[in-house]
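Tokens in:
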């Protein structure tokens, strides 16, 4: 399907960023370069992951030209099967690791994105922008109306919630990565997937767009909410990959929480400023990785083991949770002050991916996911 090496590199960086959040020391225990690494990883890595997931949808649905007719129906079937597989895998992992697992949310994103896979880049970008403006305010209003008794009543009748405590309500509105505020990332990635990222003109335009979105969103938030709000969210916000329109304690917004929270742009605040700024950062990373791989052949050769991680990001993501359990590695909380476990996990992922990719085209879980989509070819 004409994989772009730069996109695989960006995907590897997203995986490593999530390692930083899950395994590295907290922001309060870092300084200097470490503080910047932690801050950039907090929120931005999972957003980059979600944006690249939208890009991947276009690899299935047709990049430059959307597939139509029989090919289009089979592509949609493949996406739907992937969505259900990810939802099942995410639910199974959430039973062990809790709502921090993003895979089940991915399954919902993919299902919601199905009606959009034939849209052009401009339409997708417009849709993402509109959702970025409207969705956070809608999420705030809905969460304010959603009292605890109502949530409990809905969850009591939800089989997914009974299995893993991550039910439909969590997946759509109140969870760590709720679809209502995360679909803009996926749709923005779909728009990128429709573009020719190898074009110099496209690269320059996207670089300018990414910089403008980042500076405007975070600059406006600093002016309106003040630097203290951004700093407090970065230091006190969820540290285990949590996100969405949620306060730092992991609960949903209640009616007594101030609407001024909508002016912040801290990691995982789920506001318009956070969404726009995070999309800008994701665009810059994707374009930067693409340009670097195209114009620096020596770097491309050196980065080959890292790129291999990006080709099997699902395996790398699931594997690091399993390894944490197997080796009893402490999570990135106040009790975890060392960077050594993180470095060992990154090195382990690189070595595994480099060795595996010498013998196989896909990662282990990627093979299983691809095999599960085979029945789509029987769609007529």
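Residues out:
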């Amino acid at each position: 399907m004409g994989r772009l090496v730069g996109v695989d590199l960006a995907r590897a960086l997203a995986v490593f960023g999530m390692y930083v959040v899950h395994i590295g020391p907290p922001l309060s225990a870092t300084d200097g370069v470490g503080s910047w690494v932690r801050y950039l990883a907090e929120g931005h890595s999972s957003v980059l992951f979600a944006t690249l997931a939208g890009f991947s949808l276009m690899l299935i649905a047709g990049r430059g030209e959307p597939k139509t007719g029989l090919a289009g129906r089979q592509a949609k079937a493949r996406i739907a099967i992937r969505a259900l597989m990810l939802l099942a895998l995410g639910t199974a992992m959430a039973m062990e690791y809790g709502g921090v697992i993003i895979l089940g949310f991915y399954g919902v994103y993919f299902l919601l994105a199905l009606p959009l896979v034939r849209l052009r880049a401009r339409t997708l970008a417009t849709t993402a922008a509109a959702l970025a403006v409207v969705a956070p305010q809608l999420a705030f209003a809905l969460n304010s109306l959603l009292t605890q008794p109502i949530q409990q009543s809905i969850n009591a009748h939800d089989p997914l919630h009974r299995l893993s405590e991550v039910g439909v309500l969590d997946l759509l509105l109140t969870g760590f990565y709720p679809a209502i505020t995360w679909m803009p990332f996926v749709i923005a990635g779909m728009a990128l997937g429709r573009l020719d990222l190898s074009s110099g003109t496209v690269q320059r335009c996207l670089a300018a767009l990414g910089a403008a979105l980042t500076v405007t969103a975070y600059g406006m938030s600093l002016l309106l909410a003040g630097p203290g709000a951004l700093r407090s969210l970065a230091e006190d916000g969820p540290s285990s990959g949590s996100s969405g329109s949620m306060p730092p304690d992991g609960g949903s917004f209640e009616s007594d929480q101030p609407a001024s929270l909508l002016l912040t742009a801290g990691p995982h605040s789920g506001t318009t400023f956070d969404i726009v700024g995070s999309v800008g950062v994701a665009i810059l990373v994707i374009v930067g990785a693409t340009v670097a791989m195209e114009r620096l052949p020596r770097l491309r050769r050196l980065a080959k083991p890292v790129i291999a991680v990006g080709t099997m990001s699902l395996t790398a993501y699931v594997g690091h949770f399993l390894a944490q359990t197997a080796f009893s590695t402490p999570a990135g909380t106040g009790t975890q002050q060392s960077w050594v476990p993180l470095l060992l996990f990154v090195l382990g992922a690189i070595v595994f991916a480099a060795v595996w990719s010498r013998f196989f085209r896909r990662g282990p879980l990627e093979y299983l996911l691809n095999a599960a989509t085979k029945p789509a070819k029987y769609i007529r």
